[in-house]
Batch of 2 targets.
Target 1
Amino acid sequence: MGQANKLTIPVDGTPIVACVVDTLREGGVEKVLVVTGHAPEEIRGALGDRDVEIVHNPDYEEGMGASVRTGVSLVGNDADGVLIALGDMPWVSTDVIGRLLDAFTPDGDLSIYIPMFGRKRGNPVLWGSRHFPELRQLSGDLGGKALFHRHAEAICYVDVESAAVNIDVDTPEALRELGIDGSDD
């Protein structure tokens, strides 16, 4: 992304990471934990006074797996599941979050809930607690995707009506294509 911290770039006046947090809260997620890496103070500032727990991942340069590991390590074993959302996907709707939460069954054979738009898997992904031990061991840049093949029988694809589950912002060009200038002013 160059010099800009993509998570602090405003979308309709709200920083990208704050859009994600707001959607999670409005969508019914009980507790939101934000894992920071690069420039944690910028993320704190972008979140303002939102009701979140912020934790810094000192190993963020390892990749997404380290951030998932850091976050899930703080989730108690009494939790039924964890919804892992990406901070750079501000267009995921409360409807998508609601569909995932409504589909979730903590005691069933299915324990990984993935939104599907068309024929493409998306994010966020809801993980049942039986996967916490493996999520707490992740490293590298694949995040939880590394576990999809190992637990294919546990996956429940949740059809959604929004391509937003496949849209994240990784480059200045992607921002421009979405009509965002990329400055955080």
Note: The longest strand covers residues 112-117.
Target 2
Amino acid sequence: MKLLAIDTSTEACSCALYIDGETQFRSQLTPRQHTKLILPMADELLAEAGINPNQLDGVAVGKGPGSFTGLRIACGVAQGIAFAVDIPIAPISSLATLAQAAYIETGEKQILSVIDARMEEIYYGYYILNSQEIMQCQTVDKVAKPNSIDLPITEKWYGTGSGWIYAEILQNKLKTLLQNYQIDKYTQASAMIPLALNLFKQGQVVSAENISPVYLRGMNR
């Protein structure tokens, strides 16, 4: 399996290339520079691996929620590559990517992913690790004021993501349901790889013309 993953949904711009069990990646925390960086990152990874886009089996893309502009950039790049070489796309939730990264880094199995949505709102989702070591959303990803999030029915959630700038409000809301959290964490394409491989295995991929960003605003209120 040869898979290219692209994410520009948050302040981080990242790209990862998975080839038969090995992953190489590029990442840079550079807000408003994603358009200039993402294609060179992909080109570098492909060149270093000695393969062409037409040798890829698929593309994974961070579909959102996240930055409106960033989501359009990533989806546009993924769509362009997939159209050009006729391969499918695995759309990955940005909140799922954060949860998967938190598990990889910390070993925590119950993750509350939170992204700063601006306008004093957050995107959030509750994720639990399944038997295949894949983070699965327990409801649906949502957008809300930090003090208005839905509460989980279990305890010991570990928080991650840029939305933890509202840590005091979230702690007051969650109380004993929250065990700890990490701040200044952003989506990374490398953490998308296990999620994407799982989607390809299950056949939950889409054609290039059917990929679209997930903004959430105006939804799940």
Note: The first strand starts at residue 2 and ends at 7.
